[in-house]
């Protein structure tokens, strides 16, 4: 491979990465508002490359795909995070995101009830307690506004 071809390939990759980042950042803001920005800002001093990947891959590549709308993606996400049973901070962020993209509180609770059949009651209880915290925080913020 000659130098000019290698340079052109590198520039194309940089542009693609920039497009993924821009697309991911827009999708993250659409889903999470400022919550996503806070997560990225808190990661940047420790692991800036990871913060970049967190925008590019999940949000720039996966969440931007047209096959599922954001409601369906967030339902799948909260079910998966709840089933893990050990991702409470991420679960809370995505419960908030699910509300932001149009899921109702009843739908979120129902997702965790359905998930209990396959992941067990302890994981479902943890998810329901996380939802209770998110709902209460949202109620407080709405009352203060």
From TrEMBL:
<dbReference type="InterPro" id="IPR052512">
    <property type="entry name" value="4CMD/NDH-1_regulator"/>
</dbReference>
<dbReference type="GO" id="GO:0047575">
    <property type="term" value="F:4-carboxymuconolactone decarboxylase activity"/>
</dbReference>
<dbReference type="GO" id="GO:0051920">
    <property type="term" value="F:peroxiredoxin activity"/>
</dbReference>
<dbReference type="InterPro" id="IPR029032">
    <property type="entry name" value="AhpD-like"/>
</dbReference>
<keyword id="KW-0456">Lyase</keyword>
<dbReference type="Pfam" id="PF02627">
    <property type="entry name" value="CMD"/>
</dbReference>
<dbReference type="InterPro" id="IPR003779">
    <property type="entry name" value="CMD-like"/>
</dbReference>
<feature type="domain" description="Carboxymuconolactone decarboxylase-like">
    <location>
        <begin position="48"/>
        <end position="133"/>
    </location>
</feature>
<protein>
    <submittedName>
        <fullName>4-carboxymuconolactone decarboxylase</fullName>
        <ecNumber>4.1.1.44</ecNumber>
    </submittedName>
</protein>
